[in-house]
Design brief:
heterodimer; A: 281 residues; mainly alpha; ABC transporter involved in vitamin B12 uptake, BtuC; 12 helices; globular; B: 288 residues; 13 helices
Chain lengths: 281, 288
């Protein structure tokens, strides 16, 4: 172990990284289940502008990212899913990224800031950010636990959910808020372009491995933790950008998950009497 | 007169990098117009967006190897196109998850390549150039290459124009007529990849979607026939890039630091403005 990996200033990185990995795993499970990968892609990209704006006016990064994640959530909840969101949203997203690049070019450390906001910076965490992060993370986990049944039901069987008196719109907004919170915590550390990988890589893998929701969430949380811990260590050692490790890990997990899924569903040699049940999966 | 002077600052037209930028912008906008119209009509904006993000890896690799970024963009966009063509055929469920995971890996890899570039070559700003572009930084020697790739893309689209139009508007009819759908699709994909690469060179890999689909989407709100839509898209694209270049040149005198605002910011904002304006006009025309 090289000295410094667990020294004072790294402690906050480890803590924030662990909190964000667990929360991203839990929320990501629902991102994959609901097929909301577009939202999970759009909110971090929009939040990049907030981080850049905060860098320009010298405000706290967490505050800038949080504000813009919230704006993104409101915008998607208000205008999303009203047909042809394809082109319009793509244009808005790209314009937000352009505004972010403008903010950064107006501030002094253009190239460095751009790089760390897009691709992550493990040392971006200061100890004063820990308390808000922990509170946000706890709030997020509470929302997931309280909303577990409505979220499951409205993701799998929307008609049944509304028959039981669950309001899909309200559930959706709370869910988007959770995505916004994950973005706020993860963006400064893993970068705007890689939050998405952290949020869908582990849960998508977990879904290949098991069909049970709680077990899938647990696996996705563990995979997220391993990803973040190994990425922080490797980035600390090699000085390479942390986003590279996060993106690569998400990819490796996913490929492994597909292999496991193929192995689980492989055609087994069966005795003639068993043939009737062989096609069920 | 003084207003004209304020807009077109002295030295604008004699500046050689402004001239190169104007040629580059015009060529790219002209190529993107037909390809973009087909992309929007076929509902494949997401494919265009995905290619664009992946090309960042190629651009970063080119920087590391010291070759022209355009080559990196083109190679990577073509690789993305072939992968999409191979995988897209089966249209499996959860395709956006696969795309997302692959995109993440590609972006992570470009982070590493860009980092290695900055450490080995002591050039800063490669990240900004690849991701957000800088039309003024494109060297004059790249221009013939840009024109060559652009002409190839236009040639491909022209070659399959009719069957492509038919298969975009009515896939069932097109396949019933026994057209070589595979060939048409492939020609379109190659043209799309070339346009994405050119657009990435002009305004940056992660912003390039704007130039590809923005003018086309605006044009489709204004015009009914495909030919007219392509003409409108070309007009809007050229206008946005040229106006962006002029504004960026002006912005060297602007606050806060007098170091110029990024060109890509202007181009992207103008494209969005054009789209919103077109939407407004289109809606009013329909109501009347």
């Amino acid at each position: 172990m090289p000295s410094g990996l667990f020294s004072g200033f790294m402690v906050s990185t480890w803590l924030q990284g662990s909190i964000m990995a667990v929360v991203a795993g839990a929320v990501g499970f629902f991102v994959v289940l609901r097929g909301s990968s577009f939202e999970a892609h759009a909110i971090p990209q929009g939040a990049f502008t907030g981080a850049a704006g905060a860098a320009l006016i010298g405000a706290n990064t967490l505050l800038g990212v949080g504000t813009f994640s919230l704006l993104g959530v409101v915008a998607i909840a208000r205008w999303g899913r009203r047909g042809q969101h394809d082109v319009v949203t793509a244009l808005w997203l790209v314009t937000l990224l352009g505004i972010g690049s403008l903010f950064l070019s107006l501030s002094t450390e253009y190239a460095d800031q751009t790089f760390s906001l897009l691709f992550g910076e493990p040392l971006a965490v200061s100890s004063s950010d820990l308390l808000p992060t922990a509170l946000l993370g706890a709030g997020c986990i509470t929302v997931v636990i309280v909303l577990f049944r409505p979220l499951m039901l409205s993701s799998i069987a929307p008609e049944l959910a509304s028959a039981r008196g669950i309001r899909p719109a309200r559930v959706e907004v709370l869910f988007l808020l959770a995505v916004g919170v994950v973005t706020t915590m993860a963006l400064p550390v893993v970068g705007a372009l890689l939050v998405f990988s952290l949020m869908i890589g582990p849960p998508a893998t977990a879904r290949f491995v098991t069909d049970r929701p709680v077990r899938a969430m647990a696996i996705s949380g563990v995979l997220g933790l391993v990803t973040v811990w190994v990425s922080i260590t490797a980035s600390f050692w090699s000085n390479w950008p942390i986003g590279f490790f996060v993106g690569t890990f998400a990819f490796v997990w996913y490929v492994m998950g597909r292999c496991v899924a193929r192995w689980r569903t492989r055609p087994r040699p069966v005795a003639p009497l068993e043939l009737a049940g062989a096609g069920s999966r | 007169m003084s207003v004209l002077h304020a807009i077109f600052q002295p030295g604008l037209f004699s500046n050689s990098s402004v001239q190169d930028a104007a040629v580059l912008g015009a060529v790219v906008a002209l190529v993107c117009a037909p390809v973009g119209v087909f992309t929007v009509v076929r509902g494949q904006s997401f494919a265009g967006h995905a290619f664009a993000d992946v090309t960042a890896t190629g651009g970063s690799a080119a920087f590391l190897l010291g070759v022209s970024p355009l080559l990196g963009f083109v190679v990577m966009a073509l690789a993305g196109a072939s992968a999409t063509e191979l995988l897209g055929a089966e249209r499996q469920r959860g395709r956006d998850l696969v795309t997302g995971v692959v995109l993440g890996a590609g972006l992570g890899l470009s982070a590493l390549l860009l980092y290695l570039t900055t450490t080995t070559q002591s050039t800063t700003g490669a990240a900004v150039t690849v991701l957000f572009g800088s039309i003024f930084a494109v060297s004059t020697s790249t221009l013939p290459l840009v024109i060559g790739f652009g002409a190839s893309a236009l040639f491909l689209v022209g070659l399959v124009y009719r069957p492509l139009l038919l298969s975009s508007i009515n896939p069932d009819l097109a396949s019933a007529q026994g057209l070589g759908r595979r060939v048409v699709g492939l020609a379109y994909m190659v043209a799309l990849a070339l346009s994405v690469a050119l657009s990435a060179l002009t305004i940056g890999a992660i912003l390039s979607t704007a130039l590809l689909i923005g003018p086309a989407a605006a044009a489709l709100r204004l015009a009914k026939s495909p030919g007219r839509a392509i003409a409108w898209a070309a007009l809007i694209g050229v206008a946005a890039t040229w106006a962006g270049i002029v504004l960026a040149y002006d912005s060297y005198n602007w606050p806060p630091a007098q170091q110029g605002w990024p060109v890509s910011f202007f181009v992207v904002s103008l494209v969005l403005a054009a789209y919103l304006l077109a939407q407004l006009t289109g809606r009013r025309a329909r109501r009347a």
